[in-house]
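Field log, afternoon session.

UNIT: design team B
ACTIVITY: writing a sequence onto a fixed backbone
BACKBONE:
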């Protein structure tokens, strides 16, 4: 059972997220918080596998709450809930190591997919979040959109064929175990490939590598969910 905490200052958003998660037999919402401080305290108490945090909350925002959670309970993966117009916050959270990013108005299945991916140690970017990150980077002086995509393809081309396969699956939100099964190799081999491709791409975490995969256009098809 995947234990989940929800934190959002809007009761209707919390109710909506809880209702979606309640449709999955393998997910259990163990706590809810209305602000970042409450989220950190409840994560300490319940130690969920995943914390779903609003990226902007009063008092302590989702980004700072995620940092405290990673320090206090590193086994809890963090998914950020965001809306359109919060691109700068997304980039801050991406740089801070958040494992998942979802649009509040996205499809319910994306929430279930993201929670399962992050619980399994993977990174998950909603396709719309990934598209906005790429476009925002281009709009803020980090290169034109076409230039970033070309540069990402060049970076990916420098990887080995197996590293490219792993990156495509990582970008789709698969965990190391799922990637291992898809590629018919042992999980330790996947871990080694992930470590190598992070270094060769010059990124710090799986979520940042997923952005490169989206920029390069090599996302693998999603496997069917249980």
């Amino acid at each position: 059972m995947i234990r989940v905490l929800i934190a959002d200052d809007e009761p209707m958003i919390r109710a909506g997220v809880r209702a979606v998660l309640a449709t999955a037999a393998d997910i259990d919402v163990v706590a809810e918080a209305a602000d970042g401080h409450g989220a950190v305290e409840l994560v300490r108490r319940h130690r969920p596998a995943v914390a779903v945090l609003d990226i902007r909350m009063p008092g302590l925002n989702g980004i700072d709450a995620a940092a405290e959670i990673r320090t206090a309970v590193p086994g809890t993966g963090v998914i950020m809930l965001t809306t359109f117009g919060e691109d700068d916050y997304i980039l801050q959270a991406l740089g801070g190591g958040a494992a998942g990013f979802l649009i509040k108005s996205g499809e319910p299945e994306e929430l279930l997919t993201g929670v399962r991916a992050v619980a399994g140690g993977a990174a998950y970017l909603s396709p719309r979040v990934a598209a906005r990150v790429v476009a925002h980077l281009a709009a803020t002086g980090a290169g034109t959109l076409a230039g970033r995509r070309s540069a990402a393809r060049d970076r990916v081309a420098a990887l080995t064929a197996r590293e490219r396969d792993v990156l495509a699956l990582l970008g789709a939100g698969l965990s190391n175990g799922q990637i291992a099964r898809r590629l018919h190799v042992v999980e330790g081999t996947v871990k080694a490939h992930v470590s190598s491709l992070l270094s060769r791409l010059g990124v710090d975490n799986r979520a940042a590598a997923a952005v490169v995969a989206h920029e390069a256009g090599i996302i693998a098809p999603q496997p069917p969910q249980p």
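LOG NOTE: The chain has eleven helices and six strands.
NEXT ACTIVITY: expression trials, pending approval
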